[in-house]
Hints:
- By secondary structure, the protein is α/β, with parallel strands linked by helices.
- The chain has 13 helices and 16 strands.
- Helix 6 links the parallel strand 3 and strand 4.
Amino acid sequence: MSFPPQNISGLPLPDKASAEHSRKLVENIQQVIAKKGGAIPFSEYMDLALYAPAMGYYVAGQRRFGAEGDFVTAPELGDIFGKCLARQIVEIFEGISDSCDIFEFGAGSGKLAATLIQALENVEVLPEHYFILETSPDLRQRQLQTLKQLVPQHAGRFVWLDRMPEQPINGVIVANEVLDAMPVEMFAVDDQGIAQQYLVKTAETGFQWDSMQATEKMVEKVAQLGLPDGYSSELNPAVDGWVAMLARGLSQGVALLIDYGFPGHEYYHAQRTGGTLMCHYRHHSHPDPLTMVGIQDITAHVDFTAVAEAAVAVEMDVLGFTTQANFLLGSGLSEMVAMNNENDTLMKQQLSINHEIQLLTSPAEMGELFKIIALGKNYDHQLSGFGFRDLRGKL
């Protein structure tokens, strides 16, 4: 790492306030490293960079989503994604006898929540509560403002939480681009065995990499993958516990997890020898997590096979798995396009909708890389969103 943050492959330089924020977080992480004996695993570094109280990327007050932020999520493009997702939620609600709730992890700007509630209101199928688990005070405030502006009539339905509700819910859990932001462990395979990536501090540059013998648990997991020497990648150590938490928090219903990633055999493909870790800063992507600390996003793609195995281990059912494009088509995208045409939508609006659909469904954009997996608890109905093409056989 170099500090202050340097221009890497054309990245825009941060402003003075952002650079100072990053400097303070670097010092904070260095102190943690010193207290931990001089080194911390990458997962702990990533956790601090993203979630350190009052300082991490997702906790401090800065613009992350949309054109003025670092990246754009599907709900920020427009209403199409949320309207299709709402159709699937209506179908799930119809398969549950009791009143239903929605629980969303990390609601971002609040745009998806607003779109879902508006779409559900239009068909008179509203949840009793819309719970939002959000740890960032800044994002909570932004979500509140978005919802007051877009769906003020439903302000009383929204409840912000710090953890899963103690009483399991009936209904739907939504997690859009949550798994990719979970801290991962980085590993490398060579003729000496399996090494785990650590960070140590340096007086000159802030941090540098160090390799150490991997933990026994990591060695066991990586060995099962059968990877060749010279291969490096990531593991998400939190996925088992997180999925178990979903199972405990759901009495009857479905968890819909949306993210970019691959089935396990594609994630650890022989040609993907450098892993999937990526950073996002001002709509630029680059692979260096040790710069722009606290002011850039750090992500890793999702191993959906690991998610499915974690679900089965806690007696949840994998109800469907498919690409985002297939899910949107299965959830009525074509009907929405036809309705827009019948309503003689103004040309400017139609062009905007067409562009949104292109970004959501094109294999070159979000359509193939983004996947949706449905995990059920005491729920055995078919889901239309996976009816167009269900890819569970690839997990």
